[in-house]
């Protein structure tokens, strides 16, 4: 069974979608740890309610050592790291030891509206400001480049004339809750390969 760690920073609705998918029997994996960079994240409560080990690795406490602390917590215990609304940047050794074994969900159609400083509601604000007709979400692998790893799954959401950042965020989140568990499932079934900067699905 695929063992995963889920990294979070906020509400954890994506974590909730993964838990639900496991409980329904759609996803054959076990969440070994939930790790947050903020002790106030509601995602931690969601984890504890389900008796999933929950940890806080805050910048305040660990600073530049945060990624190494996370690696220490999960080394040899998990097969895949899932960034589900995790708003810090991983760096250093964890990226080498978990090469092609870290995925992230981003709330836009990468490469649009992505990269450093583009996260959470800021993405949807930028989308509304630009007036694009379509947005969406992306699951991608994580490497040294922020939001730059191979794209695994994307879903499109139409931007409506009456949308503001909050209404768009809600509709994009619905799609996130669909593609993130789906991406984990594809990986758990060995159906994803990476070649020449792209992913291929079996
Ligand atoms: C989600 O929309 C996720 O895509 C985004 O943060 C939100 C977390 O929601 N992540 C990023 O912006 C990463 N660049 P959640 O805590 O309810 O899952």
From TrEMBL:
Active-site residue numbers: 106 (proton donor)
Signal sequence, start to end: none
GO biological process: 'de novo' IMP biosynthetic process; one-carbon metabolic process
Protein name (database record): Phosphoribosylglycinamide formyltransferase
Record site feature (Raises pKa of active site His), residues: 147
Organism, as annotated: Clostridium manihotivorum
Record bears the keyword Transit peptide: no
UniProt entry keywords in alphabetical sequence: Hydrolase, One-carbon metabolism, Purine biosynthesis, Transferase
Its job: Catalyzes the transfer of a formyl group from 10-formyltetrahydrofolate to 5-phospho-ribosyl-glycinamide (GAR), producing 5-phospho-ribosyl-N-formylglycinamide (FGAR) and tetrahydrofolate.
Similarity annotation: Belongs to the GART family.
Enzyme class: transferase
Residue stretches making up the Formyl transferase N-terminal domain: 3-184
């Amino acid at each position: 069974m695929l063992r995963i760690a889920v990294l979070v920073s906020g509400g954890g609705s994506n974590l909730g979608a993964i838990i639900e998918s496991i409980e329904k029997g759609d996803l054959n994996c076990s969440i070994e740890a939930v790790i947050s960079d903020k002790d106030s994240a509601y995602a931690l409560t969601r984890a504890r309610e389900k008796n999933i080990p929950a940890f806080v690795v805050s910048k305040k406490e660990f600073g530049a050592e945060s990624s190494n602390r996370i690696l220490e917590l999960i080394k040899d215990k998990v097969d895949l790291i899932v960034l589900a609304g995790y708003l810090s940047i991983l760096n250093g050794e964890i990226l080498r030891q978990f090469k092609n074994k870290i995925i992230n969900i981003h709330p836009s159609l990468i490469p649009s509206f992505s990269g450093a400083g583009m996260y959470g509601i800021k993405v949807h604000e930028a989308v509304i400001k630009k007036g694009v007709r379509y947005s969406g979400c992306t699951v991608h692998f994580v490497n040294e480049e922020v939001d730059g790893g191979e794209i695994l799954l994307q879903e499109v959401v139409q931007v409506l004339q009456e949308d503001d950042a909050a209404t768009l965020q809600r509709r994009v989140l619905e799609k996130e809750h669909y593609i993130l568990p789906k991406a984990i499932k594809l990986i758990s079934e060995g159906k994803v390969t990476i070649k020449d900067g792209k992913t291929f699905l079996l």
